[in-house]
Amino acid sequence: MGETMKDVYVGVIGLGNVGSGTLAILTADAEQIALKLGFRLRVAAVCSRSVASVKLPDGLGDDVLRTTDWREVVADPRVEIVAELVGGTTTAREIIEASIAHGKSIVTANKELMALSGAEIWDRAIKAKINLAMEASVAGGIPIHAVLREGISGDRIIALAGILNGTSNYILTEMERSGTPFDEILAEAQKLGYAEADPTNDVDGYDARSKLALLAALAFGERITPADIFVEGIRRITPQDFDYAHQLGHTIRLVCSARQTEKGLLLSVRPALIPQDAILASVKGAYNAVWVKGHYGADTFYYGRGAGPSPTGVAVVSDLMRVAREIRCGSPERVSPFAHERLGKYEPVSITTQQRPFYLRFRVEDRPGIIAELAGILAAKQIGLEAVLQLPADEKHNLPFVITVEPSSELAVREAVEQMSKLDFLREPPLALPIEPGL
Predict the structure, then answer these.
(1) Which of 54, 155, 208, 371 has the most beta carbons within 10 angstroms of its beta carbon?
(2) 379-413 pLDDT, tens per residue?
(3) Which of 211, 293, 381, 422 is catalytic?
(4) 211 in active site
(5) Domains, the chain, ranges and CATH?
């Protein structure tokens, strides 16, 4: 055995859910971590706006700097790795830029900032000879970055599909289980702490979109701007949609999808019907999952808790360990956190180019001739009818029913829906959801 290696000191900025989970693991598991590394991973500084009132773990040590000013953490000469756990794209960016300027490596859980500017930040980190790790930014407890970056990097990925937002999945699976409407479940999820006071990012798909941008960059080597990804949220899904989906042998999930097509990489975040026997259909509550299809290795599936202090804390601590190992054992030929030496330029491909069967749900003021009129619009757009479903309902003034159509171009379906929306017997615009085969 050579001489023992010096301990590595960490500064933790942000003591919310993830920050407190990270500190708890670093202190409770200090011995185990030291056995794995061959040296200790110690906390030198913690920072949060409310640091005075935060209960810190007992084993943290008396010499830990506690501050409300993140600049003190970045400037602390003992700190070799900064854990940026504040989120958002303003202060977090300043913290990361200052860390690079001070020559400190960075571990972040920040999906929004990494999806927006991760590739540029990595370029600067390389020049500064420091490391940047971001496993905790997608799917909390599932080490999906490590999988795409190293675990299956020998494969050529053709497609990936995932459930990447626990809040939306909790709402959809509760609606399916209990038949309760969206608004009531959302209020319940806010009480339980699954949903934010302003749930927009979760239920309108923006959180999942940031995560998909990161995974698609890792899987396909393209620099993706989140705004280029088609996104649709779950606010319009009702318990009746689940009843109809079940009649068709399907369920509904908010699916994040990336797949290579002849035209290029097709990306979307949207509610879709998926077969009830598909592996993603079994993902319930606040869990996340990612299914990856490779050219050589075919299907692999990754499942776990997508959020929460402990699972996400594990991802942060694992990154801290990996970066600390590199600092002490020296590994200049590093794997980019984006899995590719350089990311190509992504040329957005419109979602309207895809062919899919569709589920169209209507609410109408009942009267004769409605189906014929709708079928006429579909026929004019060369869209073939598959089935018409109408479950028993009491209200003649607000009658739900469903038409499923054969695989059709999404552009044609959208044009048909737009035309139908003007019909006077409709209580609201039709809801159009793709039916995803082969998941």
Answers:
(1) 208
(2) 999 999 999 999 888 778 888 999 999 999 999 99
(3) 211
(4) yes
(5) 8-140+309-344 (3.40.50.720), 145-305 (3.30.360.10), 352-434 (3.30.70.260)
